[in-house]
Structures are given as structure tokens and as C-alpha cells.
Amino acid sequence: MRACRDVASKLARSLAASWCAHSTAKIRRQSIDSGELIYAYAASMDACARAILATADMLDASVLTAPLAERYEGWASAGGRAILAGERSLADLADRSLAPGSDPQPRSGRQEYLESLGTIMHIEASFNHDRLRGIADDNWRVSERGGTPLAMTATGIHLTDLILDLIGPIETVTAFPATRTANTGYAETLSVHVDFASKATGYLSTVLATPFHARLAIFGMEAWAEVRDASHPDEAGPSTLTVQRRGRAPILTTLPGRDAIRSNLERFALSIDGEASNPFTVEQILGNIAVMDAVSRSIAIG
């Protein structure tokens, strides 16, 4: 994990020792003292070193490499390899696209996320509803088997899937369950705080005794973005995206609803047939299982 930063530290020291970076101190800038040249070079070396170390941290956390690999992972599928090998013509691809039942879905390259938000500092995810109110005490979701809280079996696991995909590996987890109604037999609310390998922080929450409300917010050094859903995923309602960049007016965009559950099932079926890759890597799946386990252990420890 720290290999890139170790190499970057050596490179930064080498740059400083060799003075190979260029800086400018000119009379027109009123830098008339001889020492100003030294200050200019020192500031230049410091800026270079900080940039190198920041880049190393980004490489260690796969901030850019992971989205890049995800963007082009389709070429590793059976269909993608056949295209690269010249085994499929444009006519074959056209026939597949026009075949009955074919519904290819575009995937975002996440360029705004990667370029506009800057270094990601924090993420928040919240999914709340009352569809499980009155659930039976012997239902598998609220049984003590495995000790997994109801909120994680309902929507929490999807939130952790999402933040793992957006931000990367999680290193620490602390969970806080709470019950306001004595006769429910399960935690009605759950708050989970996480620390990522990238040094970003995160927070997710679910409330299972309130009308529907869902939001996702990502905070970067240059901007933040928030998505709010108007309805439960079962109803496929619209969402509102707000992007706030420094020094600019917020941009609001209404996104059309789509059947996310159906899309997930169809993508899973295509991955089984080798026509597409699974949306989540094996590492992400195992990471989410580990987060689920960490939530349960955190609650048990108190």
C-alpha cells in the first residue's frame, strides 16, 4: 500500500537535491534581493514534492486507475475479446443491438466526478423508508443468526456496495444502532462511520420508521455533488443531481428514473453468459462482506 509513496518520497528528495525544477524570480516581480531566487527555488521544490506525494497517494488508493479499469472492463469479456480478435463484424454487432429484448445501457465515464470534484474528502449515503415496519420477529432479517442488523439486510448493504465502488477500500468501521420504539425487537436506525484507505471519511445511515428519503453526497476539495431520489427504487421515479463548484452557481439536473433492480439482474445474467463483466469486482464483493461483518462486530462490541 505504501510502496508508491516510498518511491515518491525518494523522487521528491532527488528533485530537491538536483534542483531540476524550474522557477522564476524576476525584477519585474519586485524580487530584487538575491535571496529571492533561493526562496523561489525552495517554493518550487516544495510544490513539486507535494504534487509527487499526492500522486503517490492517489495511485495507492487507485483513485484514477480503478475507474479507468472499470471503464474499459467490457473488453475483457468474451464479447469484447471476440471484437478485438476480429471475430465479429459490424453487422454482427448491429444484429445484436437490434435483437428483440436487447436493451444496452450506457455507463457513465464519471469524468465530472474524477475531474471536477477534486480530491475526495468525504461521502455520505442515506436511505430511509418504512416498508419494513411491523416485520415479524421470526423473519430472517431480524433473527439473531449472524447478528446482522435489519438495516444492513434491507438497504445498508447496497449503500456500502456503492461507496466502495465510488471511493475504494474501507479500513475501519464503527456502527451505532438505536431503537426508539420498545416493541420492535430490532434497531430502527443505524449509523455507520467508515475510514477509507485513501484517507477519505464516510458516513451512511438508515431509518426504518420514516417516509421515504434517499440521498448520496460526495464532497471534494473543488466541489460537492448530491443526488436525491424522489421515490423508492421499486417505483423508478426521477432523481435530482446538484453539483456545487467553488465560486459558481449550483447546477441542478433532473435524471429520469430507471428500474435499477431489473438492470442489475440483466447485467448479472449477461456476466454469466460471458457477454458482459459483473458490475462489481471480486475484491469489491469480498470488501463488502468484510464491511458487513465489521458492522456486526462493532455492534456486538458496543
Condensed summary:
The chain is α+β, with helices and mostly antiparallel strands and 302 residues long.
Keywords:
alpha+beta; 2 domains; Dihydrodipicolinate Reductase, domain 2; 9 helices; 8-stranded mixed sheet; globular; 302 residues
Give the N-terminus to C-terminus distance in angstroms: 30 Å
What is the CATH superfamily of the largest domain?
A: Dihydrodipicolinate Reductase, domain 2
The main sheet orders its strands as 2-3-4-1-5-6-7-8
What sequence of helices (H) and strands (E) makes up the elements? Answer: HHHHHHEHEEEEEEEHH
In terms of structural class, how would the helical and strand content be classed? alpha+beta
Number of E-type strands: 8
Instruction: Kindly provide the name of the CATH class of the largest domain.
Output: Alpha Beta
Task: State the major sheet.
Answer: 8 strands, mixed
CATH architecture of the largest domain: 2-Layer Sandwich
Strand content: 15-25%
By CATH, the topology of the largest domain is Dihydrodipicolinate Reductase, domain 2
- What share of the residues lie within helices? 40-55%
Please state the overall shape, judged from the principal axes of the Cα atoms.
globular
The residue ranges in which pLDDT falls below 50 over 5 or more consecutive positions are: none
Radius of gyration: 24 Å
